[in-house]
Amino acid sequence: MSRPKISVIGAGNVGATAAMRLAESELGDVVLVDIVEDMPQGKALDLMEMGPVVKYDVNITGTNGYEETADSDIVIITSGLPRKPGMSRDDLLATNTKIVTQVTSEVAKKSPNAILILVTNPLDAMTYVAYKTSGFPRERVLGMAGVLDSARFTAFISMELDVSVDNIQAFVLGGHGDDMVPIARFTTVAGIPITELLPQDRIDALIQRTRDGGAEIVKLLKTGSAFYAPGASAVQMAESILKDKKKILPCCVYADGEYGIDGTFVGLPVKLGRNGIEEIIQVKLTKKEKEELHISASHVKELCERIHELGHL
Ligand code: APR
User: Which domain holds residue 293?
Assistant: First the structure.
């Protein structure tokens, strides 16, 4: 039986980190694609040489084309520009739309049955671009944002309470932007809602830090954006799909009436299995939470309209 194939487009910081995590977890053979000549080949060879140390047995191939990606089970798209200090994710819109359109059309031709996981920012809009360009059903086009935003929220709660990250279950909805919607009453520590453990002003501060989590790292790195946590988050989604784990993870998906949101991509809790999105989990939100989610979704809608105005789709 052949191993599953996962292609990672963009062999930069996020792509190379994802490739390493994929190899370490032996989820399948990995194909790394980039436009920079020889670079993906070099990183793939380096990862092959890491195998004997870490003891994984998978093939990692680097390439500048798409032949090797044929019949991928999953394609993780990370190609595109990252943010620099002072930039918002939306500032990347025009450039990354062109890149994601080009990459997705190549990928869709070679792997018509693949599940796509987008990482390129602005995330929700780029997931829409891949959805439109590929023509794939919504079950097979996902964006990675909520897993990362929840991980950041979890990390901050863990630091605040000095408790294991393993005890924490964070819940974040909405787009991957400043208006994401972390929901405190569904965020628990060993099953206890954080509203029972922390005063409201501390919860508000942790939520704000989560919203600014990406910018905090950009400010520190100065030349790019976060990549360890984003790479690992994309791989967690791939794992739930390939192992048919049916984990419920917050993912950027096409909402078709769920939560009263119609016709746009937004972060919602999703059951991820071998078929991609197997269910969108709907929970009752308070009026305020619902309003915040709708504001976030309408921001994504505006960005997608801007893409059409720019004539990119
Ligand atoms: N085809 C393939 N690869 C491309 C293309 C293309 N058309 N255009 C750019 N790339 C590659 C670049 O050559 C680079 O190696 O994408 C890679 C991006 O890597 P980095 O610059 O290191 O950026 P990274 O930190 O990995 O972020 C990638 O993910 O989290 C988001 O906001 C982030 O949009 C950014 C993306």
Answer: 146-309
